[in-house]
Amino acid sequence: MSNPLFSGVLAVFLLTGLAVAQETAPAKKPVARKPKAKKTPVTADGGQEKEKAADKPVKGKYPPLEARVAAYNEQVEQKKIPREPSRPYLIEPIEITGISEAGEGYNAFVKAEDGTTLILRPGMHLYNGVVEKIEADRIVFRMTATKKTVEKKYGRSIDAQPETP
Fold it and tell me: CA nearest 86: which of 121, 56, 61?
């Protein structure tokens, strides 16, 4: 025979244990991980090489394309600059799609950052530079801010190194 007092105590004990088991601990906050620092390349003599800030667009360095196009259109309407469709575009994202011989020199067909196809000739202005010269396999630009020349080979990125035999 079962004791009713024992049954009641057992029921309270079981219910209390069940209630305690159902309580959840407060959720732990995820630990934020710090991004890994970039490793600086080591030179042949064991020293660390400093990163080169090539003429790549830095985020926020240039206004967005829409703002550059709007400013260009406004300047053309006010007759401050001659119409030159390449003016609002940056040099860095340009992709050469072809180079053709034209009379005494070359013209280059390029794809701009928004997918627009442009025909470049020597002397044409871009947002951050000028087309210095066009050859059969490359375009040479002169950067406006630094006065450095930048070479863009046909079918290669702007930072491509010359081939070594």
Answer: 121
What six digits make up the tokens of 24?
Answer: 């959840």
* Closest to 146 measured CA to CA, from 65, 54, 74: 54
- Inter-residue contact 84 to 124 (CB < 8 Å): yes
What is the distance between the alpha carbons of residues 85 and 63, in angstroms, rounded to a whole number? 17
| C-alpha–C-alpha distance, residues 39 and 130, integer Å | 35
How far is the C-alpha of 22 from the C-alpha of 3, rounded, in Å?
A: 29
The answer to whether residue 79 scores a pLDDT higher than 60 is yes
Phi, psi of 126 (to 5 degrees): -120, 180
Closest CA to 85 of 121, 56, 60, 51: 121
Report the distance separating Cα 9 and Cα 101, nearest Å.
Answer: 100
pTM summary value: 0.56
Q: Are the beta carbons of 141 and 130 closer than 8 angstroms? A: yes
Half-sphere exposure of 105 (CA within 13 A, CB side): 12
Residue 76 reports pLDDT greater than 90: yes
**Tokens 């600059």 sit at which residue?**
81
